[in-house]
Each structure stands twice: as structure tokens, then as C-alpha cells.
Here is the input.
Amino acid sequence: MEHPKNWTTLHILGFLYLTFSYTTDGSLDKREVAAMIKRLQRWSPNDTQESIANIIREVGAWYRLFGSDDERRMMASDYAYVLKDELDEMKRMEILADLSAIARADGKVSAGELGFIDAIREIFGVTQVR
Here is the structure.
């Protein structure tokens, strides 16, 4: 499935972060959403929290069109490869740091979250430990 037209890198990151947050433990905690907004705002500091929240809502609407979490994870993997090609290693490391921060936001880091981070780290070719 191809993403909607006019998507930006911020949308792609939003999809990656949303997929990470929801598919790794089956729930989306409001603290994780707040962490996503905060982390995405670092990528686009001129955007307001409300505009970042709108991007997450747009991404969420498209996210719900997928039939299964496996399909969502496959798309997130595809996006990770796109990001690997578009971003330098430092930016890819920032994404991994974002994922770790989002994982910690609800006070517990699940095995699923650790596995997702490791899979993205492998795609990115980043060997540094979280």
C-alpha cells in the first residue's frame, strides 16, 4: 500500500513511531503519545505541538487502513529502509533514541519494544547499543 500524497519525513517518522508504540504491546498510552509529539517536534522545531498532533492524527487514519499489525510492521520496515537511504548515521541514531524514549514513556519497556528497536537498528546498520 502506498502512503498518501504529500507525506513528509515527519509523516514517515510518525508512522514508524505509532507502529512501534501500538504493535509492540497492543496499547497506546497517552504518555507514549506525548513522547511521540515531543520527539517529532525535535525533527521540526518550527511546528507547533498542535501541528505535530495533526500529523499523528493523519498518520493514525492511514494506519487504521491496514488489515493487521503484521502489515503495519512491514510498512514500518519499508519506511526504515527509506530513512536509511535518506538520513545520515547521526540522524538514524536519533530515531533509535526516539524509539527508546517512547518505549520508556509509559514506565515499562517490553520485549516487543526491544525487538522492534533491534530490528530497526539492524536495518539502519547502526551498531551502537541503545
